[in-house]
Amino acid sequence: MLMLETAGQLAQDTPAPGLRMYLPLVLLFVLAAAFAVFSVLLGPLVGPSRYNKAKLSAYECGIEPSPQPVVGGGRMPVAYYITAMLFILFDIEMVFLYPFAVSADALGMFGLVEIALFIATVGFAYAYVWRRGGLDWN
Fold first, then answer.
1. Where along the chain do its domains lie?
2. What DSSP state is assigned to residue 27?
3. Which three-class secondary structure state does DSSP give residue 115?
4. Which among 90, 94, 130 is positioned nearest to 115, based on CA atoms?
5. What DSSP element (H or E) covers 40?
6. For the stretch 55-72, what's the b/e string if a residue is b when 16 or more beta carbons lie within 10 angstroms of its beta carbon?
7. Angle ∠(99,128,102) on CA atoms, nearest 5
8. pLDDT in tens, 86-126
């Protein structure tokens, strides 16, 4: 009888084993939040406190800032931004090929067909961008 009471008491004292495995994750989130709050609160205390016009102006690599961009009569060329967005788009799509390369044997013919369809879709998107002149620098 004493053994049953001790076992019952032990079961009431310990948390469920399913929740115990999340304790390191919760502690990591608490530590990250504490570090973020500490960094935000500490910044104004240790940062510079004497401001002047030079410190408050935008950093322009030693060159006086101009009111308008020189290139394009006041308009910024968007070719750089379009190229960057296309690079990110196709780069992210190509990242999806890595899991296939790792598990190509396990996927078999189904995986081969799916990856062929994926590559065809990426190829059509590339051809569309090329045809529309998204890769031209004119």
1. 74-138
2. H
3. helix
4. 94
5. helix 23-46
6. eeeeeeeeeeeeeeeeee
7. 10
8. 888 888 888 888 888 888 888 889 988 998 999 999 899 88
Q: Please name the CATH architecture into which domain 74-138 falls.
A: Up-down Bundle (1.20)
Q: Look at residue 39 in the predicted model and tell me its pLDDT.
A: 93
Structure tokens at 50: 């004497």
Alpha-carbon distance 82 to 69, whole Å? 18
Which DSSP letter does residue 133 get? T
Q: Which tokens belong to 130?
A: 């090329």
The answer to whether the beta carbons of residues 77 and 71 sit under 8 Å apart is yes
Look up tokens 């053994």; give the residue.
3
The residue written with tokens 């049953």 in the block is: 4
Euclidean distance between CA atoms 134 and 81, whole angstroms: 11
Which pLDDT score is estimated for 15? 56
Q: How many residues in total does the chain contain?
A: 138
Over the stretch 34-74, which tens digit does the pLDDT of each residue have? 999 999 999 888 877 777 777 777 666 666 656 655 555 55
Residue with tokens 């799916």: 114
